[in-house]
Amino acid sequence: MPDADQDVQLLTAAAVALNKHVGLLSELGSAFAAAGHELYLVGGSVRDALLGRLSPDLDFTTDARPEQVQKIVRSWADAIWETGIEFGTVGVGKGENRLEITTFRADTYDQVSRNPEVQFGDRLEDDLVRRDFTVNAMAVRITATGPGEFLDPLGGLGALRAKVLDTPSSPEVSFGDDPLRMLRAARFVSQLGFTVAPRVRAAIEDMAPQLARISAERVAAELDKMMLGADPVAGIDLLVQTGMGEVVLPEIGGMQMAIDEHHQHKDVYQHSLTVLRQAIALEDDGPDLVLRWAALLHDIGKPATRRHEANGGVSFHHHEVVGAKMVRKRMRALKYSKQMVDDVSQLVYLHLRFHGYGEGKWTDSAVRRYVTDAGPLLPRLHKLVRADCTTRNKRRAARLQASYDRLEERIAELAAKEDLARVRPDLDGNEIMQLLDIPAGPVVGEAWKFLKELRLDRGPLSREEATQELLAWWEERKARNP
């Protein structure tokens, strides 16, 4: 299809998408026009409109200063947020829409801390040229009648058509202003299916070490957006191949291991990318960030545990234990929440346990422990274990999946008989204190743990059985500690 025809299709898609917001846009455009100010829809909002996927979160720019913006929208908005006002941004809530209205910017950067010295501008063109990529440097004039003129001074439409990420100014200047833009390239590769222009890739390869200047929180936010994209594997591969990964996630590139001459193991990096793809295919209700991170990181302990055995084989003993520790260290360094760190590391720790299931010879006790150790992560663990089967041997793959089917059936059978979701001792703390005639303290915890292990081994006990076992344990303990 000729480029001109493709451009017409994109602009038509944008008109349809924007028309769904015409009431809001005309009201806002009228308010700014009445105050004598310009207003433009910009950035990702214009890009997404052209792609026919505009969300209720809209970005605008204006020549009005922040205090003037507040005055203009005060009587119209349902809510106003001032958290970004020092950078010229006023947040506005209107119905289901969340808007960000930012004064034209003409920032300069000190090139050391990479913090912007905020300067307001007077021209739209100066604002657009300081944006990260040309596909995010297009604008639509907003008037009292709604969307108006489409403005593309930097060739963003052509880049969008070609699905290429290029920078408005030279990439060295753009990334020097804000190195995080390099990570954004990986994010957009994942989210939009774009490639990076050769000059952009070359600049990233040269400037990747500058990502070390960016705060862990900003890095983690971009990584999460990349992981939640339609094709995170493409984004991850860009990270690794350009050197960005060595700065922000060195463990990922570290999984690239040469296959030995006997082909005794797969390349762990490529295997992990395949597991990530397969885990995504198993998602039930939209992107699952915890599952995706666990799939990517599940084997990061392998390089550190690789051993060449005397028989010519290769082993990775306890790589799940080492890997779980590595996950904790990396995710804590990136300032992830405790819950996120705990969940991802626990999945990495547990992902190999199923392989001890063999021919279905686990005892009921082993099944209970599997469920208990996974806790609320069990549905994700099911998906991770299934995704971890990447063998090309169709018979072996079918056997592994059938074996896991049987394990899930056994879990369901046990769950029908007992509450596997909350395996607790058959006596609570108060009953333990009463039966042993002891006060609250560490000893009660010991007794509770003993009864919990007993419950995992034997399943539910009657109160009489549990009491007998507790008293027997108590007598034995007193004999050991007279």
From TrEMBL:
Q: Which residues form the HD/PDEase domain?
A: 264-419
One Pfam family this chain carries?
A: PolyA_pol_RNAbd
Annotated signal peptide: none
Q: Does the keyword Transmembrane helix apply?
A: no
InterPro entries reported for this sequence: Bact_CCA-adding_enz_type3_sf, HD/PDEase_dom, HD_domain, HDIG_dom, NT_sf, PolA_pol_head_dom, PolyA_RNA-bd, tRNA_adenylyltransferase
The processes (GO biological process) annotated in the record are: tRNA processing
UniProt entry tagged with the keyword Acyltransferase:
no
Instruction: Enumerate the GO terms in the molecular function aspect.
Output: metal ion binding; nucleotide binding; nucleotidyltransferase activity; tRNA binding
Requisite cofactors: Mg(2+)
Superkingdom per UniProt: Bacteria
Identify the keywords attached in UniProt to this record, alphabetized: Coiled coil, Magnesium, Metal-binding, Nucleotide-binding, Nucleotidyltransferase, Transferase, tRNA processing
Coiled-coil boundaries = 397-424
The molecule here is called CCA tRNA nucleotidyltransferase
From which source organism is this entry? Answer: Mycobacterium bourgelatii
Q: Taxonomic lineage of this organism?
A: Bacteria, Bacillati, Actinomycetota, Actinomycetes, Mycobacteriales
